Amino acid sequence: MRVTLFHREFGQKLFNALHAMSFDGLGMTRPSFSEKENEAHEMLCTIAREHGLEIRRDWAYNLYLTLPGRDRSKPAVMTGSHMDTVASGGNYDGAAGVVAGLSVLCRWVKAGFVPERDTTVMATRAEESVWFPVSYIGSRTAFDLLTEEDLQAKRSDTGRTLADHMEACGGKPQWPHTDILQPENIDCFLELHIEQGPVLPSNNAVIGVVSGICGSMRYRHGTILGQYAHSGATPRQFRADTVVAMADLVTTLQAYWEQQENSGKAMTLTFGVCYTDAQQANFSAVAGKVSFSLDVRSQDAALLEEVDSHIQQVVQDVAKRHNVTIDLGERTGSAPARMDAELQSMAFDVSRALRIPAITMASGAGHDAATFANRNIPTEMLFVRNENGSHNPYEHLEMADFGAATAVLDGVLKLRAERI
Ligand SMILES: [Zn+2]
């Protein structure tokens, strides 16, 4: 059977099964460390068992499915993604990468192919940070990078701690751990993922070979404080209008972003939250308080710092112009991650050979792959075309595209797994 057809049929079967077990009437809901997530992991184990793959779980109950290589002492080739979803998400974010990896191993088993190196599919836990306010929980626990404080984070729907949920699923959230991933034992990590924006469809490309994963710099809880005042009785020069200050802040930084873009500096800048105080604000008063969030992303760590110092300056200027105080609150964020140049050129070579249209692109969203890249493991991501964005029930993945992208993953993994 042709490689793409094998993966297409394998994918269709598993995506149907995942849909059946996770559909909530609107979309897929598989919360991090939930029964639903366990059920999805169990399904993967059943298939792995049928194909004679080794099954292992670590202390955080991440799942590893391995096809043993001829020389087990060599660093392993790894692939994978996460199995949890946001509430009422789609059927492909995360799952596509795990299903693709498993499809590759099952095809190799069926073809009687034994690689030189161990080849492992990892299904990480808890990648979607909507459930616990901690990033990349599964992949970071695998490298023992979480703190005791992280383990006390509470899940947004149940209010129970991460440690508690982990334990209930069969994990062991107590130190010390012996089953930690060691970078020197990993040859490379590849993650296939649906694209979460419109770049691939608008370029008529099936695959995006990712050049880097953007880091972020966030102010989640910014506030502007001014003065509540009667809308009819307060002349303009006596106002400390926080809505006007907010508008100035948004337009000034929007213009700055446009300038940056024109000078070739790739970044995004988003005010995702912006509201007046629901208790006090009303139509006949100047608003005395606005709350907002600011999220900046770029592949370039130095650029994030440059943007931050510009933001500090703009905040001071805007506050002065409008007679208000602006407090950005605590800064949080994540480091950008570089993808491996050799793996990128391998992905292009395989795509070309299979006549699958591929382009290079950055990942604006964070992924488990960033954890591997930041441990200095050669890492690469492959995006697959998806028309409708992600984190919504309308994610759409053509099985022909899934088959094509998985064939590319298959080819690259094989090149690496066969290296002597
Ligand atoms: Zn994802």
Structure, described:
This protein is α+β, with helices and mostly antiparallel strands and 420 residues long. The chain has two domains: 3-211 and 338-417, 3-Layer(aba) Sandwich (Aminopeptidase); 215-334, Alpha-Beta Plaits. The chain is built from twelve helices and 17 strands. It has helices spanning 3-22, 35-50, 95-110, 137-142, 148-151, 162-168, 199-202, 242-262, 301-322, 341-353, 369-373, 399-417, and strands spanning 54-57, 63-67, 76-82, 119-124, 186-194, 207-213, 215-225, 229-230, 268-270, 274-276, 285-286, 289-298, 325-327, 331-334, 337-338, 358-363, 379-384. The strands form three sheets. Strands 1, 2, 3, 4, 5, 6, 15, 16 and 17 form a nine-stranded mixed sheet that branches. Strands 7, 9, 10, 12, 13 and 14 form a six-stranded antiparallel sheet that branches. Helix 1 (3-22) crosses helix 3 (95-110), helix 1 (3-22) crosses helix 12 (399-417) and helix 8 (242-262) packs antiparallel against helix 9 (301-322). The longest helix has 22 residues, at 301-322. It is elongated, with a radius of gyration of 24 Å. The mean pLDDT is 95.
Number of individual domains: 2
What ligand species are in this complex?
zinc ion
Distance between the termini: 28 Å
CATH T-level fold name of the largest domain: Aminopeptidase
Radius of gyration: 24 Å
Strand content: 15-25%
CATH homology superfamily of the largest domain: Zn peptidases
Can you write the helix and strand succession as a string?
HHEEEHEHHHEHEEEHEEEEHEEEHEHEH
